[in-house]
Design goal:
Shape: extended
Number of strands: 2
Largest sheet: 2 strands, antiparallel
Strand order of the largest sheet: 1-2
Helix content: 55-70%
Order of helices and strands: HHHHHHHHHHHHHEEHHHH
Distance between the termini: 92 Å
C-alpha cells in the first residue's frame, strides 16, 4: 500500500495533530487525543446502557402484563387443566378432526376457546413467538393464575365467614382465623355444605354426616345447599333456584369486581359502573388511584359458566374446615365438582335446557354487571331501530319521487 502524505489527514484538528508525535502514528491513521477517545468510548457505553435499560423496562412491562392477564385463567378458563393441556388439545383437534369426542375432550376444547376469548391476543402469540419466548409467556401467565387463586382463597376466607355471621347469626359466630371450627363441626356451615338430597335438620342425618358413615358419603356428586336460592331445595325440581344463592353472588362480586362491591346481592348489580370508574380513573391522573378489578383487566362484560364454577369451588372451600387448598377433601373432589357445574351449563341435553341455561346466565350478568345492554347492540339489532328505519323510509321516498319524475 502506498504511504499517505500529510494532506491526507484532511480536517483533523490541530490539537489532536499537535498532541501526538508523528513518529508513533501508524501509517494511514489520523491521530486523536486520549481525551477525545475516552469521551467517545463513554458516549458509546452510555448508549449501550440506555439500550439495556430500555430492554429491561420492556421485559418488565411484558412480565407485568402477562402476570396480570394470567389472573383470569383460573377464574374463567380452567381451575385444574394446564395451559399446555388446553393448547395441545386444540392442536390435536385441528390435526385429527375426530368424528366423536368424549365429554372430557369437549370440555378441554371449550376451555381453549374460552382461553382465546378471555385473552384474544394469546392465540396469535402462540404462533408468532419462538419456543423459548412462548414458554416464558406461559410461565408468567401461570404465575398470574396461581397468584389470583391464592388471593381469592385468602380473601373469601374472611368474607364468607362475615357474610354467614351477618345472615345467620350463629352461636358461636364463625371465626375466619380458625377454620377447624368450620365445616360439619359448625351447625350452620354443615347445613350449607349438606347435599341437596338430605335434610341437615334431621338429627339422624346430621349425626351420620359428622360420623362419616357409609350411608352418608359426602362427595362431589351432590348439589350442595349453599348453591341454592334462599338455601332451600325443591327435591321434586332440583334445578329450581340452583346456582342463584346470595352467597355465590357476593363471592362473585368480591372476586371479579373488588371486595368493596360485594355489599348486597338482592338488586341488580352496579359492577358495570365500577368497571367504567376504573377506566376513567386511569385516564385522569388527578383522581385518586383506583385498584383495577379482574373484570376490568380482561374486559369482562358477562358472567360465564366457568366463572360460576370457580366461585362455587372457592365458597365450598371457605365453608369447609380445611386450612389449605387441596384437590380432594376427604371424599369430595373439587376438580370433578368444578366439572359438574361446567357440564350443567355446557353439556345440555337439548334446546329446552339450553334456553334455561341462557336465562340463568342472563340473570347472573344482570346481578353482577347491572342492566346495561350496550354490548348487545349488534349491527343487526341497530338496523331495526327507528333511526335506521326512518333513514330507509326517507331514501325510499326519494327513490319514488325520482322514478315518478
Amino acid at each position: 500500500m502506498a504511504s499517505l502524505d500529510s494532506n491526507d489527514f484532511g480536517s483533523a484538528s490541530n490539537n489532536e495533530m499537535d498532541s501526538a508525535p508523528t513518529s508513533s502514528v501508524p501509517s494511514g491513521v489520523i491521530p486523536t487525543t486520549a481525551d477525545a477517545r475516552a469521551k467517545r468510548r463513554i458516549a458509546a457505553l452510555e448508549d449501550e446502557l440506555d439500550m439495556m435499560r430500555q430492554e429491561k423496562g420492556t421485559k418488565q412491562r411484558k412480565t407485568t402484563y402477562f402476570v396480570a392477564q394470567g389472573r383470569a385463567i383460573c377464574c374463567l378458563v380452567a381451575l385444574y387443566a394446564s395451559l399446555d393441556d388446553l393448547i395441545a388439545k386444540n392442536d390435536r383437534r385441528y390435526e385429527e378432526l375426530p368424528a366423536e369426542c368424549t365429554l372430557t375432550e369437549d370440555r378441554l376444547q371449550r376451555g381453549y376457546i374460552e382461553l382465546s376469548q378471555a385473552l384474544p391476543w394469546l392465540h396469535t402469540n402462540l404462533g408468532d413467538l419462538d419456543h423459548e419466548d412462548c414458554e416464558d409467556m406461559l410461565k408468567k401467565l401461570k404465575k398470574g393464575a396461581d397468584a389470583a387463586h391464592g388471593d381469592n382463597t385468602s380473601c373469601l376466607k374472611d368474607l364468607v365467614a362475615t357474610w354467614v355471621n351477618q345472615d345467620f347469626r350463629p352461636s358461636p359466630l364463625i371465626r375466619p382465623d380458625d377454620k377447624h371450627l368450620h365445616g360439619f363441626v359448625s351447625d350452620i356451615c354443615g347445613k350449607l355444605l349438606c347435599p341437596a338430597e338430605w335434610d341437615w335438620d334431621q338429627d339422624r342425618i346430621k349425626a351420620g354426616i359428622r360420623d362419616r358413615t357409609a350411608e352418608f358419603v359426602l362427595s362431589e356428586n351432590s348439589w350442595l345447599l349453599f348453591l341454592y336460592e334462599k338455601y332451600a331445595v325443591n327435591r321434586d325440581n332440583l334445578e329450581d333456584g340452583l346456582l342463584k344463592s346470595k352467597l355465590l353472588v357476593l363471592a362473585f362480586k368480591a372476586i371479579f369486581t373488588t371486595p368493596s362491591s360485594a355489599k348486597e346481592a338482592e338488586g341488580d348489580g352496579d359492577s358495570a359502573d365500577i368497571i367504567e370508574n376504573n377506566r376513567r380513573a386511569r385516564r385522569k391522573s388527578d383522581q385518586p388511584k383506583v385498584k383495577t378489578c379482574v373484570a376490568s383487566i380482561i374486559n369482562m362484560k358477562k358472567v360465564t359458566p366457568r366463572s360460576i364454577a370457580y366461585v362455587a369451588c372457592q365458597v365450598r372451600f371457605a365453608l369447609s374446615n380445611v386450612s389449605s387448598w387441596r384437590t380432594v377433601d376427604g371424599d369430595f373432589d373439587y376438580e370433578v365438582f368444578w366439572n359438574n357445574i361446567v357440564d350443567f351449563f355446557e353439556d345440555v341435553p337439548g334446546p329446552v335446557m339450553r334456553r334455561r341455561v341462557k336465562k340463568l346466565l342472563e340473570w347472573w350478568t344482570r346481578k353482577i354487571f347491572g342492566t346495561s345492554h350496550r354490548d348487545d347492540l349488534t349491527p343487526e339489532v341497530i338496523s331495526r331501530m327507528s333511526i335506521n328505519t326512518l333513514a330507509e323510509q326517507r331514501k325510499a321516498l326519494e327513490d319514488t319521487a325520482f322514478d315518478s319524475d
